[in-house]
């Protein structure tokens, strides 16, 4: 099923809406089931509330399961309230176990128990197993719907089993080979299976060098590994190498999006407040601790300026360049912070090493400082008629930018060494620290050369 372009989708949706309006069930099903699952989900979200009961009536629980698992949590909770309990139980049985676990893990315990008790025992047990693993681990992320085969089987037998069982698996591009104790022994790609002679044994086709992850591995490490090896799925094993599930690339994409959103919130000092669906009160509650802390840092900045009050009184023109020094220092430090957090997240920092990274950022800061200083040495005398003032501002900016890049690069590394998320070295925090240092450098140089200003 291919996705429709915007114009074709609107026309197609209109036909489906008309079929619903005039209660033409057969026409509705014929049109709707031809849609890509993403288009099906978008059409469902476009429905008026009074049309949804008809939607549930026309679609089987299995057909609606594909739509439900693509919805975000807020929409899922609304839909569950609208569904008949028996219909909902059947729907959960047809969903992938990891998608059911994701939903149940977010709802109240009583509601979760009710859903699990209504599901088939085998499906419910799989969901309970996934829920038993720590949040954001490979075990909680994996799905139990995968294909496992034995080394002694022939290609013909495996192909026959695939026709029967493959429809239930989340992916069949990789077939995992296990021994009699369910331990991971190898992997066979679907391409190798299709192109091999029917009488060939799996043992002669499989690769024994399998890239796998342990169930308690952090989801970020799983995502990085799948990205590094360009995999469509990765097997999940226990500490004794027993195959218990797989993590697929679509789940990894969700992890990367989730982690990127989390890091963005950390860098912007707005962790947990990046969701536009939360209330103003909730957003303010999450942001306020950082804002209050930064407010106290701002008092330190004010204190630095107060320490050089005599210098400012003597040369009032120095105050003109305070915003320039502060903004330049903060912006440069935040750029280095973003570069470092990204390199730590992708693993490129480990390849380059701390010293090489600091040298690069310091070199970048020096070059930026030289460019900005040279620009000011031309502009300031032209506007204010003072070459010494231009030197003071230019030298201050050169030193400030050189140091700001190092601070922006080193602080996330220190936080990482403390086993914390490097993204908590937020942009506002780095900016404020660099503001203070920039002002100290600026006024120290200005005070030293005040006799020449």
From TrEMBL:
<feature type="transmembrane region" description="Helical">
    <location>
        <begin position="290"/>
        <end position="309"/>
    </location>
</feature>
<keyword id="KW-0812">Transmembrane</keyword>
<dbReference type="Pfam" id="PF01769">
    <property type="entry name" value="MgtE"/>
</dbReference>
<feature type="transmembrane region" description="Helical">
    <location>
        <begin position="362"/>
        <end position="384"/>
    </location>
</feature>
<dbReference type="InterPro" id="IPR006669">
    <property type="entry name" value="MgtE_transporter"/>
</dbReference>
<feature type="transmembrane region" description="Helical">
    <location>
        <begin position="436"/>
        <end position="452"/>
    </location>
</feature>
<dbReference type="Pfam" id="PF00571">
    <property type="entry name" value="CBS"/>
</dbReference>
<keyword id="KW-0460">Magnesium</keyword>
<keyword id="KW-1003">Cell membrane</keyword>
<dbReference type="InterPro" id="IPR000644">
    <property type="entry name" value="CBS_dom"/>
</dbReference>
<feature type="domain" description="CBS">
    <location>
        <begin position="142"/>
        <end position="204"/>
    </location>
</feature>
<feature type="domain" description="CBS">
    <location>
        <begin position="206"/>
        <end position="262"/>
    </location>
</feature>
<dbReference type="GO" id="GO:0015095">
    <property type="term" value="F:magnesium ion transmembrane transporter activity"/>
</dbReference>
<dbReference type="GO" id="GO:0046872">
    <property type="term" value="F:metal ion binding"/>
</dbReference>
<dbReference type="InterPro" id="IPR038076">
    <property type="entry name" value="MgtE_N_sf"/>
</dbReference>
<keyword id="KW-0813">Transport</keyword>
<dbReference type="InterPro" id="IPR006667">
    <property type="entry name" value="SLC41_membr_dom"/>
</dbReference>
<dbReference type="InterPro" id="IPR046342">
    <property type="entry name" value="CBS_dom_sf"/>
</dbReference>
<dbReference type="InterPro" id="IPR006668">
    <property type="entry name" value="Mg_transptr_MgtE_intracell_dom"/>
</dbReference>
<keyword id="KW-0479">Metal-binding</keyword>
<dbReference type="Pfam" id="PF03448">
    <property type="entry name" value="MgtE_N"/>
</dbReference>
<feature type="transmembrane region" description="Helical">
    <location>
        <begin position="390"/>
        <end position="415"/>
    </location>
</feature>
<comment type="subunit">
    <text>Homodimer.</text>
</comment>
<keyword id="KW-0129">CBS domain</keyword>
<comment type="similarity">
    <text>Belongs to the SLC41A transporter family.</text>
</comment>
<protein>
    <recommendedName>
        <fullName>Magnesium transporter MgtE</fullName>
    </recommendedName>
</protein>
<dbReference type="InterPro" id="IPR036739">
    <property type="entry name" value="SLC41_membr_dom_sf"/>
</dbReference>
<keyword id="KW-0472">Membrane</keyword>
<dbReference type="GO" id="GO:0005886">
    <property type="term" value="C:plasma membrane"/>
</dbReference>
<keyword id="KW-1133">Transmembrane helix</keyword>
<comment type="function">
    <text>Acts as a magnesium transporter.</text>
</comment>
